[in-house]
């Protein structure tokens, strides 16, 4: 069976690569579980100074796998696991990000991308809402930008994603953008990183504590709704859903 998340280590940096490119790294139940397990191993590894989360293929993550989505609770646990990991997590994006993939970006401490990357909150177009993924995003992203992009489902480029607070930085070569970040993390003390991350994520974790149960219930209700079934069917059949006017 193909490994869904590949692990590599170099000079204190553990790289986790989402490796389901045929499915555009969509978050199936199996992929979400594999990523959660890999992150947990990183958290217990004293040799890991930071984690880089990246991808195989031209898509970082296409959101939930509509054929086999993870439970909303599992997605909440996955994102919270990134936020609570005692080492920084850096997203390296050299492709496209949609829907639930933006929740992974929001959970990461730093997110860098190539200027070829594109982003979109597509939930509204298939009868859903960015419910659980809003947990890490609302405390970190620009409210006006989120309103526009979550309500319209428009595609945005890397420069707009930086302005909106979805990305930290972007450039023509993502690895050139990433290099000084990793150099800085390697020069930082493990204690300094852990305690600084704790300070920076406190508000995000308060949002999880306050809203996770309600948003999990909302996500489950929407996924089971007639409009979501029509939206998913239309997406898989590559047609407009019936509500398009």
TrEMBL record:
Organism of provenance: Streptomyces nodosus
A GO molecular-function annotation: catalytic activity
Protein's UniProt name: Enoyl-CoA hydratase
InterPro entries the UniProt entry points to: ClpP/crotonase-like_dom_sf, Enoyl-CoA_hydra/iso, Enoyl-CoA_hydra_C, Enoyl-CoA_Hydratase/Isomerase
Coiled coil: none
Pfam families associated with the record: ECH_1
Source superkingdom: Bacteria
NCBIfam families in the cross-refs: PRK07827.1 (NF005879)
Family to which the UniProt record says this protein belongs: Belongs to the enoyl-CoA hydratase/isomerase family.
């Amino acid at each position: 069976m193909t490994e869904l998340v590949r692990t590599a280590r170099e000079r204190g940096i553990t790289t986790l690569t989402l490796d389901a490119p045929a499915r555009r790294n969509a978050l199936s139940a199996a992929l979400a579980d594999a990523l959660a397990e890999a992150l947990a191993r990183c958290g217990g590894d004293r040799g890991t100074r930071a984690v880089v989360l990246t991808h195989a293929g031209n898509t970082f993550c296409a959101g939930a796998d509509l054929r086999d989505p993870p439970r909303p609770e599992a997605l909440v646990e996955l994102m919270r696991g990134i936020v609570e990991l005692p080492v920084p997590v850096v997203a390296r994006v050299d492709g496209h990000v949609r829907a639930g993939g933006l929740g992974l970006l929001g959970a990461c401490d730093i997110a860098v991308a190539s200027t070829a990357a594109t982003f979109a909150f597509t939930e509204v177009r298939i009868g859903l809402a960015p419910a659980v993924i809003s947990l890490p995003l609302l405390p970190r992203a620009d409210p006006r930008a989120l309103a526009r992009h979550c309500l319209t489902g428009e595609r945005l480029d890397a420069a707009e994603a930086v302005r909106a607070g979805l990305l930290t930085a972007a450039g023509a070569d993502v690895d050139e953008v990433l290099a000084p970040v990793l150099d800085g993390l390697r020069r930082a003390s493990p204690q300094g990183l852990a305690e600084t991350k704790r300070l920076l994520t406190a508000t995000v974790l308060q949002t999880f504590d306050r809203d996770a149960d309600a948003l999990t219930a909302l996500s489950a209700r929407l996924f089971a709704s007639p409009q979501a079934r029509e939206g998913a069917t239309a997406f898989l059949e590559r047609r407009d859903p019936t509500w398009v006017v």
